[in-house]
Amino acid sequence: MQREKLIDRAVDLRIATLRAEAEGICGITDCGGNREEFLYYNEEDFVRLIKGRDYTIKKHPYNYKYQYRSKISGLTFTCLTNKLLFDGDEIKLEEENNEYRISKA
C-alpha cells in the first residue's frame, strides 16, 4: 500500500470514528462479518433509538447485567447495561429463561 493511501485511510477512520462517537456508537464487532454489531454506550439514546421496534434482551454473563439488541435498517445495534430499560423486561426475562424477544409489530 502506498504511504498516501495509508494516511488517507487513517484520516477517514478517525473522521468516521468521531462521527460515530458523536451519535453514541462506541465500537463495532465483527466488522463486515455475519455477526456485525454496533455497540451503543448511551442508554437513554438507545431507548429512543429502539422505541417502538422489536428488540431482544438477555442476561449478560460478564461485566454488565443485560444486553439489548435491535435491528435497524439491517444493522444490529447493541447496548450493554446494568439496568432494565423498559417496564416489564424483568418479568419477560424470567418467563423466557433469561432471553426474550420483544415484538412491537
Report on the structure:
- The model has no long low-confidence stretch (mean pLDDT 87).
- This protein has 3 helices and 6 strands; from the N terminus they run H-E-E-H-E-E-E-H-E.
- A hairpin with a 7-residue loop joins strand 1 (25-29) and strand 2.
- With 105 residues, it is α+β, with helices and mostly antiparallel strands.
Give the secondary structure arrangement, pairings included.
Elements (H helix, E strand, L loop, with lengths): L2 H20 L2 E5 L7 E4 L2 H8 L4 E5 L6 E7 L2 E7 L7 H7 L3 E4 L3
Parallel strand pairs: 2-5
Antiparallel strand pairs: 1-2, 3-4, 3-6, 4-5
Structural Rg: 16 Å
Principal-axis shape: elongated
Structural class: alpha+beta
Averaged pLDDT:
87
With strands numbered from the N-terminus, the spatial order across the biggest sheet is 1-2-5-4-3-6
Roughly how much helix do the residues carry, as a percent range? Answer: 25-40%
Summarize this entry quickly:
This protein has 105 residues and is of the alpha+beta class. It has helices at residues 3-22, 43-50, 89-95; strands at residues 25-29, 37-40, 55-59, 66-72, 75-81, 99-102. Strands 1-2-5-4-3-6 form a six-stranded mixed beta sheet.
